[in-house]
Design a protein that fits this description.
Elements: H1 2-18, H2 22-29, H3 34-39, H4 46-63, H5 66-79, H6 86-100, H7 103-109, H8 117-134, H9 137-153, H10 158-170, H11 176-186, H12 193-206, H13 209-216, H14 224-236, H15 240-248, H16 257-273, H17 277-290, H18 295-306, H19 313-324, H20 331-385
Length: 386
């Protein structure tokens, strides 16, 4: 009996020692691939299960994939009435309200004056998502505030850095000065590729192309989006050859549509400058397919057709230039469309109207000739008969 009691106590002590700590849970929630890390957890302690519930609940809201929602409720049911540390319990309650009710209800449950580090990490993700989706400035400000607090204790974690750099480079309330100041503080920490990617995206939005390329060089394994930003910066700085090499080593189809469209457009520009019109047409078409609202690419596609040997080049050029909707705003588009319409009109006259008129005239001449011959014969017959 004593041995059995000692064994149970030993197991309890062992499980307590190896149960996930709040700091470790915070670091996981703030990582880029948090759901992957959570899925890899093998612990079965109450805090491990709570963290799995929290992670899957957040993943469901961020991706709207139903399997995460199912897993969230599975882990929540496993908790039952098992005692949770206060910070885990509060964070789980916030996420349960988020999944089962609404984002607004979960935000109303958050008390920024009472939150622990774990619930702050959870709140940061919820505020940031709400700001990105709804553009609510209050959510953006709260996300930035929480990010600043968390960075003090977890300076190398991904999400607080992403939130701050994104907020100051995408929000009308953001500040380029704060962005630059914060960048100078973060870079000496050797932040890693994920955080560098967030900095580079902000530099792209601010047009800080020189700094962007400096930070790009610090990356060990650049992601495709960072490659695109680096290529664009090289183009802006006149290094077109380098940009072409980077773009052709980038999986452009995996980029967000608006960036993929710009990438294909730039490759089209390069091909056209090199005199390779067929290649330019290919890239411009891909640019328009990626983002049909990219009117610059539509115009370039239309104008490129005029330089091609396509048998329908004039029709296609007119179609895309009219499709751009820029006739009233772009002088080149207006003048080219005017030329193409005159050409179309003259073509109709030459190919359709002129032959028709010619046929009518020929018919009239033939009829007149026929009637003259008939009248002459009638006159000759009358003379004979008289």
């Amino acid at each position: 009996m004593i041995k059995r009691t000692l064994l149970v106590l030993s197991l309890l002590i062992f499980s307590t020692l190896f149960a996930i700590s709040e700091d470790k849970a915070v670091e996981i929630i703030l990582s880029k691939d948090y759901i992957f890390e959570i899925s890899s957890l093998e612990g079965k302690e109450v805090t491990d299960i709570a963290l799995k519930a929290i992670g899957n609940g957040l993943a469901y809201i961020e991706t709207l994939e139903w399997n995460y929602k199912d897993r969230f409720f599975d882990f929540l049911n496993q908790l039952n009435d098992r005692g949770l540390p206060e910070d885990f319990e509060y964070s789980t309650d916030i996420v349960e309200t988020l999944v089962a009710t609404s984002t607004v209800s979960s935000l109303n449950l958050i008390d920024l004056d009472k939150t622990s580090n774990l619930s702050k990490a959870v709140a940061l993700r919820i505020y940031f998502l709400d700001w990105v989706q709804t553009k609510d400035p209050n959510s953006g400000k709260d996300a930035a505030k929480l990010a600043m607090e968390l960075i003090k204790k977890y300076p190398k974690t991904y999400f607080p850095n992403k939130a701050l750099f994104y907020y100051h480079s995408h929000s009308s309330f953001g500040s380029k000065e704060i962005f630059e100041e914060f960048r100078k503080k973060v870079l000496p920490l050797n932040p890693g590729d994920d955080i560098l990617a967030s900095i580079i995206e902000g530099e792209y939005n601010f047009g800080m192309y020189k700094e962007l390329l400096e930070d790009y060089q610090l990356m060990d394994a650049p992601d495709d989006l960072s490659r695109f930003f680096a290529a664009f910066a090289n183009i802006k700085l006149g290094q077109v050859g380098t940009a072409e090499i980077i773009l052709k080593n980038t999986s452009i189809s995996s980029l967000p549509k608006k960036y993929a469209s710009v990438a294909y457009e730039e490759l089209g520009n390069i091909s056209e400058d090199e005199g390779n019109i067929d290649s330019a047409l290919f890239y411009y078409r891909r640019a328009v397919e990626s983002d049909s609202s990219n009117r610059d690419a539509i115009v370039k596609l239309g104008l490129a057709y005029l330089k091609s040997n396509d048998k329908d080049r004039y029709t296609l050029a007119r179609f895309y230039l009219e499709m751009s909707g820029l006739e009233d705003y772009n002088e080149e588009v207006a003048s080219t469309l005017s030329y193409l319409r005159r050409k179309l009109l003259s073509g109709i006259i030459l190919k359709q109207v002129a032959p028709l008129i010619g046929g009518v005239v020929f018919g009239l001449i033939f009829l007149e000739y026929f009637f003259k011959r008939r009248r002459k014969k009638q006159e000759e017959r009358i003379k004979k008969e008289s």
